[in-house]
Amino acid sequence: MEKFKTLSGVAAPLEIMNIDTDMIIPKQYLKTIARTGLGKGLFSELRYDDDGNDVPDFVLNQPAYKNAKILVAGDNFGCGSSREHAPWALKDFGIRCIISTSFADIFYNNCFKNSVLPIQLPQEDVDKLMDDANRGANAIVSIDLEAQEIRGPDGGVIHFDIDPFRKHCLLNGLDDIGLTLEEADSIDSFEKTASAERPWL
Amino acid sequence: MAGPRTLYDKIWSDHLVREDEDGSALIYIDRHLIHEVTSPQAFEGLRMAGRKVRCPEKTLAVVDHNIPTLDRSQGISDPESALQIETLAKNCADFGVEYFDESDERQGVVHVIGPEQGFTLPGTTIVCGDSHTATHGAFGALAMGIGTSEVEHVLATQTLIGRKEKNMRIVVDGELPDGVGAKDIILSIIGEIGTAGGTGKVIEYAGSAIRSLSMEGRMTVCNMSIEGGARAGMIAPDETTYEYFRGRPRAPQGAEFDSAVEYWKTLCTDDGAEFESEIRLDASKLPPIVTWGTSPENVVSILGQVPDPTKIADEARRRAMQRALAYMDLAPGTNMVDVEIDRAFIGSCTNGRIEDMRAAAAIVAGKKVSDRVNALVVPGSGLVKAQAEAEGLDKIFTTAGFEWREPGCSMCLAMNDDKLKPGERCASTSNRNFEGRQGYRGRTHLVSPAMAAAAAIAGHFVDIRDWN
Q1: pLDDT on residue A175
Q2: Which of B111, B8, B91, B9 is nearest to B44 (CA)?
Q3: Which one of A152, B187, B283, B444 is separated from B421 by 20 to 30 angstroms, measured CA to CA?
């Protein structure tokens, strides 16, 4: 997995609550057998009109936000399905960090497997960053994962929390399957005990 | 572990391979269900790293999301869907995983076939790359939806990295009124706790109204746990559960069944066990429910009205409601019984089982679908379809003007040709009313099978309690 240490770029505001995974990447894009190339489908029902042209009002179509790397969003971002196509689409578009007051569990988990950083913050911090993000091309926000800090355009610093194991994996780009396979002996011994206790499984 | 424990605590600790002091854990997965949409990239990952499937015998594959529900004898016309389905077949053959293909009578929606085959069992950990995996929690299993990277992790290691979630209990006591069922219970719960109310929690559903539900009804309740934000929902197994598994192909048989039941009997929350949060509902006061908006928490009684955003104080919520009403093309104050529909969909992992077919058929018998409505019944599996046909339900539906289709996810997520056209309004027994969920600009109202059937006949929503 790609390492995630620092990130600096334009933050785009998306002030909608309960942005679901169908909204992030609609079903017609789920027929792929690849992980890449989904950026074109990101938010497609908000981003394109009936004829497939860009909707000028949609934030990621505005010149200032076309290269956004960070999304500041409403509560409960990523609710709905388990489709990992959601973080794949965000990443393929160029968004590596999403900031919200809350995330749905499966989406949150999926982000970390793809070197995308979801940051959960209290409402007042999200409000502040939403204001920053509304400044268009001047909305440059920097993220330092090691220090767990977000630096806004005014130089103000916001601290964020993150699970230490997930942080470690992101910073070092670790493949967690490789890590788990190193524990094969423990898995073998669990299987022996379990099949003695529950032989019908 | 000392002290009284919850059902979730017990299953969690019975599956711990390792738990660190900081709470991060490796848990063993007993059962892994896979389907065509969220597995190709996982198998590709295994191939690239030269890895094998650790336990093919604990893995079962089926095609459901993408599959046409009309005649399949001509093959699949959409090349992308066809490739995805061929890829699943090839992956299963290459990695030694059993696969129910589109011609197999056992094929169906992944969350319908798992229990049907006895692949799902009480006390197990079950995962699938699908958020409605919580369905299997109805049997007292810890069942969770996972992403594709986690699918790959489970294929390679038969384990999942995670940390324990909080315990939440929802107690539903009392007797359900006629015409009110499992779907109304879970929609009412989501309305109560909100779409993020269960985030970070595992929900245990308890109380006399839950106990009195059939296994089908319990699956409907657990299925929509994710719509309340919870990755897993569960119900302690009891006699209803044990009886369900007797004689199922993959369930234990004979003396082994009896020893399994002895273990299953230990799977209950101990008196005095603590829950981080608890909600109580009185089943006797629940009405038939219909959703008005684009989030499953947007529920109202069938006798209620479309809400008024100007009465919402919180700005973010007011804007969300305005957006939803604009999308749904509904005016505040409209009576739900006056809302006309264009389509009806009966099926899905929420309501595609035999009991759902029976409930809808009972409403439809001897009546005709409204001229303004196109109505679809999609059984949850080939076995549900065969059972329904043996009972003559298919004839009841087709005589009334419903289409009777082949099993699959169909218009629940509209990945195949079954989808709403822009602007169409649907009474749907599925689980999500998100924007575009059932088709671009389609408008979804979530209801029970009986309510969807009645709306298809009347052409608008009706109070099923008055149906005759």
Answers
A1: 85
A2: B91
A3: B187
